[in-house]
Design a protein that fits this description.
CATH superfamily of chain B: Aminohydrolase, N-terminal nucleophile (Ntn) domain
CATH architecture of chain C: 4-Layer Sandwich
CATH topology of chain C: Glutamine Phosphoribosylpyrophosphate, subunit 1, domain 1
Structural class of chain C: alpha+beta
Low-confidence stretches of chain B: none
Strand order of the largest sheet of chain B: 8-1-2-9-10
Number of domains of chain B: 1
Distance between the termini of chain B: 38 Å
CATH class of chain C: Alpha Beta
Strand content of chain B: 15-25%
Largest sheet of chain B: 5 strands, antiparallel
CATH class of chain B: Alpha Beta
Number of helices of chain B: 6
Shape of chain B: globular
Structural class of chain B: alpha+beta
Oligomer: heterotrimer
Helix content of chain C: 25-40%
Mean pLDDT of chain B: 94
Chains: A alpha+beta (276), B alpha+beta (249), C alpha+beta (236)
Radius of gyration of chain B: 18 Å
Largest sheet of chain C: 5 strands, antiparallel
Largest interface: A-C, 26 and 27 residues
Chain lengths: 276, 249, 236
């Protein structure tokens, strides 16, 4: 099988086409990534995220009695390459809200700047009014929905956790603007792997979970995700948000199977889960 | 001011024969009619105080604010027309936001001050516009440490250790000149400013006033520009009143 | 003699670059809504499951019925994000109408307005399938049923969404009494009987349709206003 010359003879990823190879023969034939899929010359300058490039994996979160625990790992992948190993995917917004973000890293950073601008506006106006968690959630939902209407989506799924007037708020928004609130939420592979675990623990505790229980549950879920989701890592962060505000943990290395040869069989899952 | 009028004061685009732009002078007059605003730069931060004159007893407490935050790390104090100054505040906020968007870091106080001053200056160049009837004191903390700038209707932008403007400008300046700025803390500066504002206030001629105090400090406010908390403010005010009584005795 | 020919190997220059899952602005979040109108009332039901476009359930408590006035609700299945945008738009426009005209928009007027709203966006449609249900100015129960771009019809009963094929025949048989050789044909049925029937209908949809389940909102609209009731469906 021979390579199609068209796709390797010119630079990709927005690099400069120094030798002007491409534009000479066929103006505006697109590059594999970062491309606009209709081939009109006028669109050449406008680039959209039609494909995520550097991505974060799952976010999981659950309500407990008095607050919410949210967990993410810290990996950002470049396709299947584990590119950035220590990226914080959670962000505090205002005093009583934290967001956790899956998907395109650059869009997350852009969203972060937008939200910082909003909280700075609140700070400057200084009338005592601050954005509540629900308002932040709704803002992100409208932002994402309007972006998708322009065909220029922000390629993220955002989990918003917060506390307003002593009540927990937990909501989710995705790249087309779908949004809802629930007692436990998971994105990406988490929706397949972690959500059943979250649901079981939640249903098994009709009186609600304690904070310790919730933190352990989130860590266990992230561990299970690490075992099966190839785009996840065991370097995680767990945040707790309650009426006192937000606490995002320092990076934690999950205790897992020891992958040195022969030792995987020695430790059982039970041992790992019990931390022995 | 000598030859007032004579046709040279109709536009900012006309100099008088002795080299003045009367409209700018008049704008400064507007500032001089307003409540005093002073600021002190100390080793750990900056404190701003405004003598906010209350035109009516029916006004809600805290309305017509004369100290505003512009970004997390910068605030301004106002003398002169409040409406004019608010335009400058809005512009300053926009400049701070745009700087952060472009350069990814908070705007330096000097840069912000110069940009606001440039706006004021533009309003001294064209016949179709009126100069801003206000001066502002811009205070903040950036990589260079605490900063204090004053921007005037002419478009000048000057850094100070201590600055004053408004009615009691000269009297306040005399007091400020006695201060050893590098030995002072923001806590002491709050009291000092309260004392000066109370002492320059003319109880006979002027309306009632309310003292507005804003501060920013690396240690006390963690580098954020805040209004001075109630307890500190009332301490400072009683200190000022006591000092005033002692001086009168 | 028949000769078996080899399919020619595809040539390289016709091969297109890999398309890594191009952006898809539409998602079908599923769900079933149905409504039956009586002489002076209207009953609406909608399940509360929101699917992720595939086999997954995003949430079990997303309500598809939205109250527009004291005499009118809209029940919507399809894409949740579009549904939300449509509901917000309708609410804003209805509030605006009330302020301009000093009265609440009537149910038939809302029905026409919804059609206009959907048709206005026909080249990038709201991916929503709607029912307008309520009582009109005479107090008579009435329903309008829509497609995504605004075609509509006034009916006595209807269903929309992923389970509508399961519900419609049931309604045809039990409400319209199609082809039953009854001497009198359809007749007025008391409210509680219809509520009970509507619950059976949505339960049956939940039985076979994987996008329908969890809970159902049962809404009754009559001269007293709008009443809500929660009803359990299967969680599987």
């Amino acid at each position: 099988m021979s390579f199609n010359q068209d796709y390797i003879s010119h630079p990709v990823f927005g690099q400069v086409d120094y030798f002007n190879k491409k534009n000479h023969q066929q103006p505006n034939q697109h590059t594999p990534y970062y491309s606009v899929h209709n081939h009109h010359q006028t669109d050449a300058g406008k680039q959209k995220t039609l494909d995520p490039i550097v991505t974060g994996s799952s976010v999981i979160a659950i309500k407990y009695n008095g607050g919410i625990v949210m967990g993410t790992d810290m990996l950002c992948s470049y396709g299947s390459l584990a590119r950035f190993n220590s990226v914080q995917r959670q962000k505090q917004v205002g005093t009583h809200t934290v967001i956790g973000v899956s998907g395109e890293l650059s869009d997350f950073q852009s969203l972060s700047n937008t939200l910082d601008d909003l909280t700075t506006d609140d700070f400057c106006i200084d009338d005592g009014s601050k954005l509540s968690s629900q308002e932040i959630w709704n803002y992100i939902a409208r932002l994402f929905y309007n972006s998708r209407n322009k065909g220029n989506p922000l390629w993220n799924t955002v989990v918003v956790a917060g506390n307003q007037n002593g009540k927990s708020f937990l909501g989710k928004v995705d790249l087309v603007g779908t949004c809802y609130q629930d007692d436990f939420i998971a994105t990406g592979y988490g929706a397949h792997i972690a959500l059943p675990l979250l649901r079981k623990e939640y249903d098994d505790n009709p009186n609600g979970l304690s904070q310790d229980q919730a933190v352990k549950l989130i860590q266990d879920c992230l561990r299970v995700l690490f075992y099966r989701d190839a785009r996840s890592s065991k370097r995680i962060q767990v945040s707790v948000v309650d009426s006192n505000g937000v606490k995002i943990s320092d990076p934690i290395e999950l205790d897992t199977y020891n992958w040195h040869s022969g030792e995987a069989a020695v430790r059982t899952f039970q041992q790992v889960a019990l931390g022995k | 001011m000598t030859s007032v009028g004579s046709g040279y004061d109709l536009s900012v685009s006309t100099y008088s024969p002795d080299g003045k732009i009367f409209q700018v002078d008049y704008a400064n007059k507007a500032v001089e009619n307003s409540g005093t605003c002073i600021a002190i730069k100390t080793k750990d931060g900056v404190v701003v105080g405004v003598e906010k004159l209350i035109p009516s007893k029916m006004l809600c407490h805290g309305s017509n604010r004369r100290i505003h935050a512009v970004d997390l790390h910068i605030g301004v104090g106002i003398s002169g027309f409040l409406a004019d100054a608010r335009q400058l505040v809005l512009r300053a906020r926009a400049e701070a936001k745009s700087y952060k968007q472009i350069y990814g870091q908070p705007i330096p106080v000097k840069v912000l001050s110069q940009r606001v001053a440039a706006l004021c200056h533009v309003y001294t160049l064209y016949g179709s516009v009126r100069a801003f009837g206000c001066s502002i004191i811009i205070s903040g903390i950036d990589q260079e440490g605490p900063q204090l700038y004053q921007v005037e209707p002419s478009g000048s932008c000057i850094g100070y250790f201590g600055a004053s403007m408004g009615k009691g400008k000269q009297a306040a300046k005399n007091e400020l000149e006695k201060i050893k700025f590098n030995e002072m803390t923001t806590h002491e500066a709050i009291k000092e400013i309260a004392k000066i504002i109370y002492s320059v206030h003319d109880e006979v001629k002027d309306k009632d006033f309310q003292l507005e105090l804003g501060w920013i400090s690396t240690t006390e406010t963690k580098g954020q520009f805040n209004m001075v908390p109630k307890d500190l403010q009332s301490d400072a005010e009683s200190y000022a009143k006591n000092a005033l009584e002692e001086a009168n005795m | 003699m028949n000769v078996l020919k080899l399919t020619p190997f595809p040539t390289q220059d016709k091969e297109k670059p890999l398309n890594h899952g191009r952006f898809e602005p539409y998602v079908d979040n599923g769900g079933t809504v149905l409504s039956v109108a009586g002489k002076d009332y209207c009953v609406v039901a909608g399940d509360t499951r929101m699917s992720d476009g595939g086999y997954g359930i995003q949430t079990r408590k997303y309500t598809k019925i939205f109250q527009l006035t004291n005499k009118c609700v809209i029940a919507t299945s399809g894409m949740q994000a579009d549904t939300l945008a449509l509901q917000k738009k309708l609410k804003v426009m209805l509030d605006h109408y009330q302020k301009e005209n000093g009265k609440v928009m009537s149910t038939p007027a809302i029905a026409q307005f919804l059609s206009n709203t959907l048709y206005y966006k026909r080249f990038f449609p709201y991916y929503t399938f709607n029912l307008i249900a309520g009582i009109d100015e005479e107090g008579e129960g009435c329903i309008w049923t829509y497609d995504a771009v605004g075609s509509h019809e006034k009916v006595k009963y209807s269903s929309q969404g992923s389970g509508n094929q399961l519900v419609i025949p049931l309604l045809d048989n039990q409400v319209a009494k199609f082809n039953q050789l009854l001497p009198e044909g359809p007749k007025d049925v008391p409210l509680d009987q219809v509520v009970s029937f509507v619950k059976d209908a949505i339960t049956s949809a939940g039985e076979r349709d994987i996008y329908t389940g969890d809970y159902a909102d049962i809404v009754v609209i009559d001269k007293h206003g709008v009443r809500w009731e929660k009803f359990e469906l299967k969680l599987d």
